[in-house]
């Protein structure tokens, strides 16, 4: 998209620092996520990807800096205002756990029970629609133990979409999946972004996924304690002069 038509920012992170017990995970992190894009957060294990997500959705308070989500300073919100904003964000966590003793349909209904006054028939209808969107219409009555890992990830996305959030966060959606299932999940994310206009923030370190789905990305680095790259992942692969970024995108072993 040309610069003049750039979509508005739905997330603005400015000079964010995360520290635990005085230990800095990252600092000086600044970026925008634009409406309708698939934004990828990447970097090696332990660099702070999940920690960054937890800040953006208000689970952690910034040590420094500010975070704006859908025009509101999430770290400053409390009570009903905070709940209202959180309803507009869907999250699929890295652990991704579905409730084991509930069917997939019941799992998708959980956020509807928690956050809406919809009657049971309406909840069931919404659950059926969401499971349909991720290709699980036929599995609505199955238990999590009765489905494959890829189906469980898709069910997790359906649950995260229950309240029609304009922003969906996915923490390593394709971890532990075979390459074909993983590619199917990538296609689903791209399709949902295109067809529903949903903004995706996806944490992954799977290079193929990043190149397949990412409109833009940032790369965090544990040693640098912050961002070492930002932009179109394909351009970073072809043009970055940073040795860590090059090593990651070109699968080179660093000297
Ligand atoms: N609540 C917490 N208390 C203390 N330290 C924490 C907390 N949350 C995260 N950390 C630390 O922050 C660092 C980054 O962790 P994080 O889980 O964000 O990494 P990650 O990039 O998501 O890694 P992975 O790719 O393995 O999921 C780690 O050193 C972790 O121990
Ligand atoms: Mg993580």
Automatic annotation (TrEMBL):
One of its GO terms (molecular function) is ATP binding. SMART domains: AAA. It comes from the Bacteria. Keywords: ATP-binding, Nucleotide-binding, Transport. Gene3D superfamilies: P-loop containing nucleotide triphosphate hydrolases. SUPFAM superfamilies: P-loop containing nucleoside triphosphate hydrolases (SSF52540). Pfam families: ABC_tran (PF00005). Residues 11-249 form the ABC transporter domain. InterPro entries: AAA+_ATPase, ABC_transporter-like_ATP-bd, ABC_transporter-like_CS, P-loop_NTPase. PANTHER family: PROTEIN TRIGALACTOSYLDIACYLGLYCEROL 3, CHLOROPLASTIC. This is Polyamine ABC transporter ATP-binding protein. The lineage of its organism: Bacteria, Pseudomonadati, Pseudomonadota, Alphaproteobacteria, Acetobacterales.
């Amino acid at each position: 998209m040309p610069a003049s038509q750039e979509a508005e920012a739905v997330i603005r992170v400015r000079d964010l620092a995360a520290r635990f017990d005085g230990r800095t995970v990252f600092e000086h992190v600044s970026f925008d996520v634009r409406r309708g894009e698939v934004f990828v957060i990447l970097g090696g294990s332990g660099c702070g990807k999940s920690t960054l997500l937890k800040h953006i959705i208000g689970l952690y308070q910034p040590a420094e800096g500010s975070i704006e989500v859908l025009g509101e300073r999430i770290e400053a919100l409390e009570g009903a205002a905070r709940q209202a904003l959180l309803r507009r964000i869907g999250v699929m966590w890295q652990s991704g756990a579905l409730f084991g003793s509930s069917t997939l349909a019941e799992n998708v209904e959980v956020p509807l029970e928690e956050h809406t006054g919809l009657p049971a028939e309406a909840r069931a209808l919404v659950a059926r629609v969401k499971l349909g969107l991720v290709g699980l219409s036929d599995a609505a009555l199955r238990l999590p133990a009765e489905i494959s890992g890829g189906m469980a990830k898709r069910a997790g996305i359906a649950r995260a979409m229950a309240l029609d959030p304009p922003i969906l966060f996915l923490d390593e959606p394709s971890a532990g999946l075979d390459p074909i299932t993983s590619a199917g999940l990538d296609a689903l994310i791209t399709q949902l972004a295109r067809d529903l206009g949903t903004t995706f923030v996806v944490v992954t370190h799977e290079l193929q996924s990043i190149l397949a789905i990412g409109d833009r990305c940032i790369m965090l680095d544990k040693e640098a304690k912050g961002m070492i790259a930002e932009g179109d992942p394909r351009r970073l692969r072809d043009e970055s002069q940073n040795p860590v970024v090059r090593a990651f995108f070109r699968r080179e072993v660093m000297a």
